[in-house]
Amino acid sequence: MARRLCTTELFSGRRVDSYEYIRRQEVRALVRGLFRRGGRAVAVWEHLVDATLRNVLRMSVEDKWSGCYGSAEGEEFRRAREEVFAVAGAVSNVGEWVPWLGWLDLQGGVRRMKRLSKVYDRFLESILDDHDQERHKAARASSPAARDLVDVLLQQLAKEGEADGTSSSPEARLTRDGIKAFVQDIIVGGTESSAVVMEWAMSELLRRPDVAAAATDELDRVVGRGRWVEERDLAHLPYIDAVVKETLRLHPVGPLLVPHMARENTLVAGYDVPAGTRLLVNVWAIARDPTSWPDRSDEFRPERFAGSAVDVRGQHFELLPFGAGRRMCPAYGLALKVIGTGLANLLHGFAWRLPDGVSPEDVSMEELFGLSTRKKVPLIAVPEPRLPVHLYAAVD
User: Quick one: which residues bind heme (predicted)?
Assistant: First the structure.
């Protein structure tokens, strides 16, 4: 049922397209914010994560909770989300490596998780209550229409209630707790991942000015300097697409994907794998394997995708940033739109350079492993506007 909801409702092509105006507005807000910096150095990550957080919250839980207008609810929600990422991404939990010490909770991770779970549950309950009230008002006026992903889930919950007594198994039915879990997964999975990929891409491009110049030339040729890049343009920007693919190859957000399990006894590369074995797929190592990527596999070379049929949608096992099969990320289509348009507009709107005294070789590419694989040293860069001034002030 969860897969069906994701495929046919939450992340269907129709639903994703219906939120294009939100993605467009948030890209405009991102470039306006950078423009106001007046050509001064910025912490790229902070701007990117703010934009992606507002984007996913507006699509999923409404403007009030996105913090777009400085609401108290939005700001408090953002702070809680940041702490959730910090705690959930911790990898040094002694109790998981030495189970008999787990009850001691030596690092306090379990206590923080329990406290945060209550905080998060309170937020999610408030969000659902708000949506219930709005849906009841809309129902009295006319037929309720889904405004965001929470509305879609609440409508499904109502349908499940109406279908009571059917052959559906109770375990497969959607519950209020199930909706909260969906919303939490959408926020966690959709916020940081896109920002991580874009920051890695910008870091690689600043280390390779020739690649950045080639991408900018393509944007000038296809889009021109009289407007911003739209999602419809992505199909005509093969080099930008290659930059995104190469970034996902070298810097997958989840280098080990989500845990998998062997459904039957099997033999892999001479190793017996019993049914029930937990499996971690190392897509980071697969994407750097010289056998599959013979042309300097550890280097950032987008041109390797020129004329190549290899894609990131789970059909080519040498490149699996979103996974494959039944456990593939259901929102990969949305992610590619957010990353593609965000990165294209950053390159189209600004000529990026490193701060004075910093050379391309000085850009740190160390990884910080947690809930996602972020840069250990955040990227600092200078955006210098390259389009007509009136475009930065334009409001959709």
Answer: 329
